[in-house]
Amino acid sequence: MREVYLDPGAPKEVRRRALEASVRAQEDWHTAAVRAAYHSGDIEWRLTAVICMCYVRGFDREIVEALERGDSQIRYQAVRAAGNWAVDAAWPHVRALVRAEQIDDRALLLAAIDAGAGIRPDEAAELLADLADSEDEEIADAVFEALATVERHGNGPEDAE
Q1: How far apart are CA 112 and CA 123, in angstroms?
Q2: What does the pLDDT look like over 9-59, one tens digit per residue?
Q3: Is 134 left (phi over 0), alpha (psi -120 to 50) or beta?
Q4: pLDDT in tens, 50-93
Q5: Where along the chain do its domains lie?
Q6: 122: which of 4, 69, 157, 161 is 20 to 30 A away, CA to CA?
């Protein structure tokens, strides 16, 4: 995969997908490759980098930056990465997404519900309580899954007693 990623003669889409796939079995070269993609100035490479940040540790600052300045695809991937690595600085963004009265990007909301359980489980349990009775079955299911994650890790509201 590394050879494909590094091959300047390969189509950009192929190179991007090679990097995205290869990070699932992290190697030493990935951190530099993800950093280069993120700072390349190319929006597609930046998206690839943020996708990779879900699998490569050490990009907390970039994840928060992507939440603040990314388009919807980049923000979605940044939310996923923030939840995976429990990036505490991303909490205000995740909380705002969950609290939003109207959100046009359903996938982003579902990702935020999931991420909250990974970032701040205690606060997420309280935050998600209002959505647990959602008439939207997919949202209610996502909340149920997030709350189950919180409970499995011993961070449910009943543990605060």
Answers
A1: 13
A2: 999 999 999 999 999 999 999 999 999 999 999 999 999 999 999 999 999
A3: beta
A4: 999 999 999 999 999 999 987 999 999 999 999 999 999 999 99
A5: 1-56, 72-154
A6: 69
Q: What is the length of the chain?
A: 161
Q: Measuring CA to CA, how many Å separate 27 from each of 33, 40, 145?
A: 10, 21, 31
Task: Give the C-alpha distances (Å, rounded to integers) separating 139 from 18, 79, 142.
Answer: 32, 16, 5
- Percent helix, strand and coil across the chain, each rounded to 5? 75, 0, 25
Tokens of 33: 């490759």
Long-range contacts of 129-135 (CB under 8 A, 24+ apart): 131/98
